[in-house]
Amino acid sequence: MEVTEKAKDLVQSAADVFAALRAFDPALPGLTVIEVAGRAELDRGTALLLIHTLVSLGYLRPVPGTRRFRLGLKCLELGFLTLASQDLQAHAAPLLREHVPAIADTASLGTLDGPDVVCLVRVNAGRGPGRHSVDRHPSRRIWAYGAALGQVQLAFLPEARQVAIFESAERAKLSEPTPADLDPLLDRLRRVRAQGYAVSDGENAYGLRTVAAPVLDVSGTPIAGVSFTIDAGRMALDEFVALARPEILHVAQQLTRAVRLSASAISVGRSPRWGRAWTGT
Question: What number is the average pLDDT over the span 220-227?
Answer without folding.
Answer: 97
